[in-house]
Design brief:
heterodimer; A: mainly alpha; 3 helices; B: alpha+beta
Chain lengths: 65, 823
């Protein structure tokens, strides 16, 4: 059972990676609004018209509000 | 048809019929006098009709398909008709986020966001407004982040489009500070959760017998020590800060016993790890920290919502003024207007400065400032105040005061002062926290003393075990959870509460003081009596079409004109009257003096009746047609839900009274049949403040319910201020509770919900104290193992969580009378 001396640090490292991913997603604002995204996907997108396409081509906003 | 005065005083009650009888925009049941558009669609009000036309006109009719799926009640739309010039203020623009491609982002708070279809509609803005690049709606906070190109469109124009779609926007800063605090807490929560899970796994190994092998036991102890370290040091940091603040200010709070428990457990665990023997409580401590953070996070998340709504920029007096210099007009910042400057105000605009009218006559709606329901007729030489609305004609005003010197600004300052001076509410949990700390420390000392004679080492172990097991995890969660459940449900019902302490204060019996205008009443004149025929009414309505006078609008609401009726040779007379020919009949509409002056003979009985109206605080208007004279009487009327809500509220209030700025006669007429101890009129905003403040000082609990700036100062001086829908932004700042729905019923719901919440808080506290008692007995008896602590603690938390979630606060929609949607 001495393998446990090796397995435990590996398990901790994996959960540390998960925590880091969580911290990153929080800091980049992905968890700021938990209510709207599930509502947003309920509606189908209609194709953009030419003018809207031009409008939408501007660079996307970064992940901050 | 002759309306009897008494029955007409109660606004009509909408019928609750089949779906066909519902407003095509908001889906609410139709009142008798709704609006109807050219396609025959029916609406509950002109607001909904206008928004429907705007949405269809922009090709966004799909909004209504999505709404049908939702099956949720809408809210009647009411475009504010404001011009939003203040949004183009360069000072404000500096707070926006500027992108490298030249576009700008701003966050706007929206009124009227209520369903999933709203998300789609608001986010479709770039399709219909050229220059808008992106619109993102945060449904929970009802804020929209708009990114637009300032070279193509002004923010005020975007705001105007949003307003037309039924979402009245308000400027909002970026709120980055709060956002950082929210994210910080979430990170702590995540880290604490991961650590708690891992430490628990290692403890499980220890409990299940790994400790029999010394090398494994040492390994797991050290492992859990290393893992618990960041949780205790970093994640729990905010509890130590709270405890330190409590010690310094000598106001005990829950953070104090929490910090004692965590640090005692961790220090003893660390010592035992070093020694390689004895008990370690790392699993209990890390789980404790995690659960406490969950409670904290939930509480904070719900509170944000109300805080944001109250954070609306003060848009009472417009920030821009049109200054007239010679023949030129230029836009200037309102607070920079010098005394003596001439300012022009168009109909429909708010007056930006305090001053005297130089030229022009008009009607001014001052209800925001004074609570007077009837618009004031003003002419040259009259004094007008910033923040009031110019209704009828163009005015030129000689400025006397601007910016911080205006009456409205002084009122807001008085409100802020009252808010600062008000004693903070001591919460139930914090009140028991002091006793709790003393009791726990005494018990720990007792345990130590008793066991010392048996074995000093054992005595320390048992005392530590007691400190850890009494660490008030469930106690710390009981209040935030119950409150957060209540606040969340209340927000979904359109009642925003600033925080748990407000809810607790509202739960106790108090004197309720109501404002009249806009609170108990709709705050605008309605036709309460009409002695003419329906046909005549429709003819008058046709003659008044396009007239912006509030009484004319009230008449048109009562008699929606048909398109086939066209008035000819309409002639406006000074003094708010008119002459016109409809269906070949000659009509004169106006006051008694006006009719006499154009040669109409008024019969004596009509004259007597108009006098009677005046003593009731009603505004009579006469209509002469072919020698016959009919009377239309206008007045502020009670909302449909006011009387039933007050009857119910009487059960919870020690007493109820009305304190209004309106004329005493009007107050008396309107409040006659309500269960009140007193109804006072003629109270100035300053008078309201001093009355409420003196009652609070004498130790009475006072709940002030109001809507305007005139109530704001009184509301912030009261124990709890409740602002009802339609209120000014200043009243939101002053209020602890804000209802997004019109009427008095939400006040009743808030009080009921607050009582149930307080009951849930008490229940949670009782449960967790019970568990703590069990823990204390076990620890003092010396039979509390870390395993028992690890089971007892989450068990107590689970009980408290269940109890909080089962609370009925704001859960069951109370049977409410339909609101008279009469507009």
């Amino acid at each position: 059972l001495t393998i446990i001396f090796l397995v435990l640090p590996i398990a901790v490292a994996i959960s540390a990676a998960a925590v880091l991913a969580f911290v990153w997603s929080t800091k980049s604002g992905q968890l700021d609004d938990l209510e709207t995204p599930p509502l947003r996907m309920l509606r189908d997108e209609t194709p953009l018209t030419d003018r809207e396409h031009r409008n939408a081509k501007a660079p996307r906003r970064r992940g901050r509000r | 048809m002759l309306f009897s005065l008494t029955s007409a005083l109660i606004p009509h009650v909408p019928r609750l019929d089949a779906a066909a009888e519902r407003c095509a925009h908001c889906g609410l049941s139709l009142p008798e006098r709704g609006a109807i558009d050219s396609e025959g669609k029916r609406f509950c009000c002109n607001g909904c009709s206008a928004v429907y036309a705007a949405i269809q006109g922009a090709g966004l009719g799909a909004f209504y398909d999505g709404r049908a799926l939702e099956g949720r009640d809408g809210v009647p739309a009411r475009p504010s008709g404001r011009r939003f010039a203040e949004l183009d203020d360069p000072e404000l623009a500096r707070t926006f986020e500027h992108h490298p491609d030249g576009s700008v982002s701003a966050v706007l708070q929206l009124e009227g966001v209520h369903c999933a279809a709203c998300v789609w509609l608001v986010e479709s803005l770039p399709r219909v407004v050229a220059g808008v690049r992106e619109a993102r709606l945060d449904f929970g906070r009802a804020t929209a982040t708009i990114r637009w190109s300032p070279s193509e469109i002004a923010l005020s124009a975007i705001a105007l489009s949003l307003d037309r779609l039924g979402y009245t926007p308000h400027a909002l800063g970026r709120g980055s500070f709060e956002q950082r605090a929210d994210r910080g807490l979430l990170v702590r929560l995540g880290v604490a959760g991961a650590i708690a899970g891992n430490v628990m796994l290692m403890s499980l190994a220890l409990y299940s017998g790994a400790a029999s092998d010394v090398s494994f036991a040492t390994y797991f102890r050290w492992g859990s020590f290393v893992l618990a370290l960041p949780s205790v040091v970093y994640c729990a940091g905010l509890f130590y800060r709270g405890a330190w603040a409590a010690l310094r200010t000598r106001t005990p709070n829950m953070d104090l016993p929490i910090s004692i428990g965590i640090s005692a457990g961790f220090v003893s665990g660390a010592v035992n790890t070093l020694r390689g023997s004895g008990e370690v409580f790392f699993d209990t401590i890390t789980t404790l920290i995690f659960l406490l953070l969950v409670g904290r996070w939930l509480g904070q998340r719900q509170q944000r919502r109300a805080a944001l709504a109250a954070d609306l920029a003060l848009a009472l007096a417009p920030s821009m003024a049109r200054v007239v210099e010679g023949s030129e007009r230029r836009d200037a910042r309102a607070d920079g207007v010098r005394a003596g400057a001439l300012v022009e105000v168009l109909p429909g605009e708010r007056i930006p400065v305090d001053g005297r009218i130089e030229t022009g006559d008009s009607a001014v709606d001052a209800r925001l400032l004074t609570g007077e329901s009837t618009p004031l007729e003003v002419k040259a030489g009259d004094r007008v105040y910033a923040g009031t609305e110019n209704l009828a004609g163009t005015l030129r005003i000689r400025a006397e005061h601007s910016g911080g010197e205006t009456r409205v600004a002084k009122l807001v300052a008085a409100m802020e002062r009252a808010q600062r001076e008000r004693a903070p509410i001591v919460r139930v949990a914090d009140r028991i926290a002091g006793h709790f700390v003393v009791a726990v420390l005494a018990l720990a000392a007792l345990t130590l003393a008793v066991w010392w004679r048996v074995d000093p080492a054992l005595a320390v172990d048992h005392a530590i075990a007691l400190l850890v097991v009494t660490c008030p995890c469930a106690l710390g969660m009981a209040t935030p959870l119950a409150v957060s459940v209540a606040l969340g449900r209340a927000a979904r019902r359109g009642i925003l509460v600033r925080g748990g302490e407000v809810l607790e204060a509202l739960a106790r019996p108090a004197r309720f003081v109501f404002d009249k205008t806009g609170t108990l009443t709709a705050g605008r004149p309605e036709l309460v009596e009409w002695t003419g025929s329906d046909e005549l009414g429709r003819r008058v309505s046709a003659a008044e079409r396009g007239c912006d006078h509030p009484l004319a609008r009230a008449f048109q609401r009562a008699f929606p004109a048909h398109d086939e009726l066209v008035a000819e040779s309409v002639e406006r007379l000074t003094g708010a009257g008119l002459r016109a020919t409809v269906e070949g009949r000659r009509l004169v509409v106006g006051t008694e003096e006006l009719l006499t002056s154009v040669g109409v003979d008024i019969p004596d009985d009509v004259l007597a009746r108009t006098r009677a109206h005046a003593t009731l605080g009603l505004t009579p208007v006469l209509v002469a047609e072919e020698g016959r004279v009919a009377i239309a009487a206008f007045g502020d009327t009670l909302r449909a839900d006011a009387a039933p809500a007050l009857d119910e509220l009487a059960k919870y209030a020690t007493s109820m009274s009305v304190l209004s700025g309106d004329h005493p006669l009007v107050v008396e007429r309107v409040c006659r049949d309500l269960p009140l101890v007193s109804a006072r009129g003629g109270a100035s905003p300053e008078g309201k403040l001093s009355e409420i403040a003196s009652r609070v000082r004498s130790g009475e609990r006072v709940v002030m319910v109001g809507d305007g700036v005139n109530d704001a100062a009184a509301m912030s001086a009261a124990s709890v201020g409740i602002a009802v829908h339609g209120g000014a932004e200043a009243s939101l700042l002053a209020a602890g509770v804000f209802s997004t729905e019109p009427g008095v019923w939400p006040v009743l719901e808030a009080v009921r919900g607050a009582r149930l919440t307080l009951r849930a808080i008490h229940r949670g506290l009782a449960f967790s104290l019970g568990y703590n008692l069990v823990g204390v007995v076990l620890a003092m008896a010396g039979v509390l193992s870390p395993l028992a602590a690890a089971i007892l603690m989450p068990l107590s938390s689970l009980t408290v969580v269940t109890s909080a979630l089962r609370s009925r606060a704001f859960a069951v929609p109370a049977v409410r009378p339909p609101i008279g949607v009469s507009r």
